[in-house]
Amino acid sequence: MVSRQERQALNEQRREAMAVLAKANGSDLLALWNEAGLPDDAKILRGPETGLVTVRGRMGGGGAPFNFGEATVTRATVKLPTGEVGHAYALGREKMKVRVAALIDALRQKPDLQDQIEDKILGPLRARQAQADATRRAETAATKVDFFTMVRGED
Amino acid sequence: MYVAVKGGEAAIQNAHRLLADRRRGDRNLPSITLEQIASQLSLAVDRVMSEGSLYDTGLAALAVKQARGDMIEAIFLLRAYRTTLPRFGYSRPVDTAAMLVERRVSATYKDLPGGQLLGPTFDYTHRLLDPELAEDAAPAAPEARSEAEEAMPRVSDILANEGLIEEDGSLPEDREPGDITREPPEFPMERDQRLQALSRGDEGFLLALGYSTQRGYGRNHPFAGEIRIGEVDVEIDVPELDFPLTLGRIRVTECQMVNQFKGSKKVPPQFTRGYGLVFGQSERKAMAMSLCDRALRANELDEDITAPAQDEEFVISHCDNVQATGFVEHLKLPHYVDFQAELGLVRQMRREYEERHKGAAADTERREAAE
Question: Does the beta-carbon distance from A53 to B88 stay under 8 Å?
Answer without folding.
Answer: yes
